[in-house]
Amino acid sequence: MSWFGNWEGGGYKSKKIEERLCSKCALGKIEDEIYFLMECPKYTNERNKIMSFLETVYPWTSQSQDHKSVFTAMMSSTNFEVQRQVSEYISKIFKIRN
């Protein structure tokens, strides 16, 4: 598995989809960007922090069960503070992951 997960650094391209399971939880889910950032229970504590912050900027995220929409808002924001907080979140969960 790549340092970046099964979706980057060739991991995504060189593995069949059924081989890209998250190695950090026992749920048997495919590890992609959305699963890594929005769903894997390994990162729940850090995710709760970023979601609490995002709710102050994007109130609709508190009600959303659509992880892809929240992911898209989080990753495409032009708000500097959102960018900073998301960057810190990603850094923290990569440290936990590795």
Short description:
The chain has 98 residues and is an all-alpha fold. It has five helices and no strands.
Descriptive account of the structure:
With 98 residues, the chain is mainly α. 54% of the residues lie in helices and 0% in strands. It is built from five helices and no strands. The chain has helices spanning 11-14, 33-39, 44-57, 67-76, 80-97. Helix 2 (33-39) crosses helix 4 and helix 3 (44-57) packs antiparallel against helix 5 (80-97). The mean pLDDT is 86.
Q: Helical residue percent?
A: 40-55%
Radius of gyration: 14 Å
What is the CA-CA span between the terminal residues?
11 Å
Low-confidence parts = none
Q: Give the beta-strand count.
A: 0
Order of helices and strands: HHHHH
Approximate strand percentage: under 5%
Number of helices: 5
Keywords:
98 residues
SSE map:
Layout: H1 11-14, H2 33-39, H3 44-57, H4 67-76, H5 80-97
Helix pairs in contact: 2-4, 3-5
